[in-house]
Amino acid sequence: MRWRRCGEDAALLDCDSPGQVRAAHAIVLAARPAAVVDLVPGARSLLVVGGVAAVRALLDGADLSHPPDGEPREVTLDVVYDGEDLDLIASDAGISADAVVELHTGAVYTVAFTGFAPGFGYLTGLPEPLRQPRLESPRTRVPAGSVGLAGEFTGVYPRESPGGWRLLGHTSATLFDPHADPPALFAPGDRVRFRSVR
Q1: What is the mean pLDDT of the chain?
Q2: pTM of the prediction?
Q3: Residues 10 and 105 in one domain
Q4: What is the count of structural domains for the chain?
Q5: Domain for residue 66, yes or no?
Q6: Strand, coil or helix: what is 70?
Q7: pLDDT for 68 beyond 80
Q8: How far apart are the first and last CA of the chain?
Q9: Residue 182: its pLDDT value, please?
Q10: How far is 69 from 13, CA to CA, in rounded Å?
Q11: Rounded to an integer, what distance in angstroms lies between the CA atom of residue 164 and that of residue 139?
Q12: What is the pLDDT of residue 170?
């Protein structure tokens, strides 16, 4: 782990893996140091705003090699696997489209962090054959609810937006509602499963 200052009242903790980020985030959330204003987990970093000294003391010597204790919340999303890139994904993986769906629905994913758009969760746990690059040329319009993959992550577009991920299918689930409490369906540490529906 390595700490880097970010302005006067914040610091970025660089970690070796998404698992270390989840563990550090959970430890700080459980302790709730009063001076901490915000915690923002990333792929391999945790931004601490306020209370940096207290958080550093809390994490100094902490074992971040294991996931945090407690049962994570689990979310299951129904997906119609009719994505524009399903055949491309299958071809690049050297398997059938049906096998792509079996692999994607057979895994249990963890929300490593959120970003890009409100409600967009970067989910880790993607099976190796599905770890494929982004499209060479991003789309100018990806419909809300589109389920995609890129690199080591899979995720769901919460609203219509440009995007370069390979699309597997779509879900009708609401990923972000500013009037809900909480507004985002996903939070870091949540477990996510996908279920194939017609």
Answers
A1: 92
A2: 0.79
A3: no
A4: 2
A5: no
A6: coil
A7: no
A8: 45
A9: 87
A10: 21
A11: 6
A12: 98
Rounded to whole angstroms, the Cα distance separating 113 from 190 reads: 10
CA distance 76 to 96: 24
Amino acid in position 194: F
Q: Answer yes or no: is 94 within a domain.
A: yes
In whole angstroms, give the CA distance from residue 126 to residue 20.
Answer: 18
Could you give the 3-state DSSP secondary structure of residue 103? helix
Average pLDDT over residues 38-64: 89
Residue showing tokens 């987990």: 41
- Burial classification of residue 138, based on how many CB atoms lie within 10 Å of its CB (0-12 exposed, 13-18 middle, 19 or more buried): exposed
Structure tokens, 82: 């009719």
What would the two tokens of residue 80 be? 């119609």
Report the CATH number that the domain containing residue 14 is assigned in CATH: 3.30.1360.40
Selected residue with higher pLDDT from 180 and 69: 180
CA distances from 186 to 54, 63, 135 (A): 27, 25, 25
Q: Which of 152, 79, 63 is nearest to 110 (CA)?
A: 152
Q: What is the 3-state secondary structure (H, E, C) of the chain?
A: CEEEECCCCEEEEECCCHHHHHHHHHHHHHHCCCCCCEEEECCCEEEEECCHHHHHHHHCCCCCCCCCCCCCCEEEEEEECCCCCHHHHHHHHCCCHHHHHHHHHHCCEEEEEECCCCCCEEEECCCHHHCCCCCCCCEEEECCCEEEEECCEEEECCCCEEECCEEEEECCCCCECCCCCCCECCCCCCEEEEEECC
**Can you give the residue range of the structural domain that contains 97?**
74-196
